[in-house]
Design a protein that fits this description.
CATH class of the largest domain: Alpha Beta
Radius of gyration: 22 Å
Bound molecules: 4'-deoxy-4'-aminopyridoxal-5'-phosphate
Mean pLDDT: 94
CATH architecture of the largest domain: 3-Layer(aba) Sandwich
Strand order of the largest sheet: 4-10-9-8-7-5-6
Distance between the termini: 45 Å
CATH topology of the largest domain: Aspartate Aminotransferase, domain 2
Number of helices: 13
Order of helices and strands: HEEEHHEHEHEHEHEEEHEEHHEEHEEHEH
């Protein structure tokens, strides 16, 4: 495995990443006549060869439906799926009190929680009329809209933990919002629109102490700063495979067994039932109870391979590298006239979001694309946060372990050029 040596060499011409980059064939292409600089990793990262190989191996040798088969391939597929579950539990620091459910991504995982706590089944729904749900103001729509719907469905009240003018969250503000009626508190481990890393450990602890179910959206942190589940007051944590060098359409809901047991399933059908009569059914134990239907088995295998890839590369090295790239980009952008960097002075990592006075982000993104630089523009599915900060749409560059300081320099030159051209 290649080393991430640019941490030691923040000088602009890092060459130590070549062996690592060679694991990602998609990077070795020209786009619009220039080498691709892929800086849209908060939307989706690329997958390395070991992840592609693990999935191809499964597809070529072991592919079969799981859990119900007596034949060899079905048993091998079941073993591969359950091994992936165990590997991923270890990856997030799950303990004996935790269980892991495969989903199609963070969105499905968070919908499963919001739906599961607000729907009655054999037991009454956890969220009752008059209860309160608190969601942070940093959230992706995937960790806001399901709670809006849950509140509406149950006649509960949705409260927002508002960030300050710099986009930071404060535990003392949460303490003010918590009441004996607070059933749920949901927060991100890293804001996708700004890169802000809130003090989620303290926030979750406060909410848990107040008796609320706690939900952590780890979609943006799991690739470089995996929250250690056993050290957190966290009932439910969600993340997506495609943001951590794994396959698209894969994801995880992992959490406390006792909390997961309170969820009414989102999908009824095969694999999640214990027995079925013509008029009634009883459900299987966790985790199958929440995994109705045939899962994405090769995806789960690929996701576990992605976790192994992260660990072999080194979590601390990846995190340090992404922080260095972010600091380089944020300082360079803030030095350009008329450019404002979001979460400029906070502990943000991996993501840099900015606005340039008088220039629309879409135009910046288009001009960067003409130079082979891929960034994302718009509201990044976090419109309430950007409205709150008074900034509107932004341009966002986001980094992965294969990005280089030379690519950051290209970004800075490209933004500077775009600004001069468009103003
Ligand atoms: N939460 C955050 C913080 C995200 O950044 C994203 C994806 N942009 C999601 C949730 C939703 O993830 P997915 O689309 O993979 O379900």
């Amino acid at each position: 495995m290649g080393e991430i040596v640019s941490v030691d060499r923040p000088a602009r011409h890092s060459t130590g990443l070549e062996p690592l980059r060679a694991q990602f064939p998609v990077l070795a292409q020209a786009v619009n006549g220039a080498p691709l600089a892929y800086l849209d990793n908060a939307a989706t990262t690329q997958t390395p060869l070991p992840v592609q190989d693990a999935m191809r191996r499964f597809e070529q040798h072991d592919r079969a439906n799981i859990h119900r088969g007596v034949h060899a391939l079905s048993q091998r597929a079941t073993d591969a799926f359950e091994q992936a579950r165990n590997d991923l539990k270890r990856f997030v620091g799950a303990g004996a009190e935790h269980e892991l459910v495969f989903t199609s991504g963070t969105t499905e995982a968070l919908n499963l929680v919001a739906h599961g706590l607000s729907t009655s089944g054999a037991a009454p729904a956890v969220i009752q009329p008059g209860d309160e749900i608190i969601v942070s103001g940093l959230e992706h729509h995937a960790n806001l809209v399901p709670w809006q719907q849950a509140a509406r469905r149950r006649g509960a009240t949705l409260r927002i933990l508002r960030p300050d003018a710099q986009g930071r969250l404060h535990p003392e503000d949460l303490a003010q919002l918590l009441t004996p009626r607070t059933r749920v508190f949901a927060v991100t481990a890293c804001a996708n629109a700004t890169g802000e890393r809130p003090p989620f450990e303290a926030l979750l602890a406060l909410a848990a102490e107040a008796g609320a179910f706690t939900v952590l959206d780890a979609a943006q942190s799991v690739a470089h700063a995996v929250p250690g589940l056993s050290a957190l007051d966290c009932d439910f944590m969600a993340f997506s495979g495609h943001k951590m060098y794994g396959p698209m359409g894969t994801g995880v809901l992992v959490g406390r067994r006792g909390a997961l047991e309170r969820l009414e399933p989102l999908r009824y059908g095969g694999d999640m039932v214990a027995w079925v009569s013509a008029t009634e059914a009883s459900f299987a134990e966790l985790p199958l109870r929440l995994e109705g239907g045939t899962p994405n088995v090769s995806g789960a295998v690929g996701l576990a391979a992605a976790a192994a890839f992260i660990d072999q590369t080194g979590r601390a090295l990846i995190d340090a590298h992404l922080s260095a790239l972010r600091a380089h980009a944020a300082a360079g952008l803030a030095g350009l006239p008329g450019v404002t960097v979001l979460s400029a002075e906070t502990g943000a990592s991996a993501i840099v979001s900015f606005v340039a006075e008088g220039v629309h982000p879409h135009d910046i993104g288009t001009l960067l694309d003409e130079q082979g630089i891929a960034v994302r523009t718009g509201h990044h599915c976090a419109q309430p946060l950007l409205d709150h900060l008074g900034l509107g749409p932004t341009t966002r560059a986001s980094f992965a372990l294969y990005n280089t300081h030379a690519e950051v320099e290209r970004l800075l030159a490209g933004v500077s050029h775009a600004r001069k051209l468009l103003r």
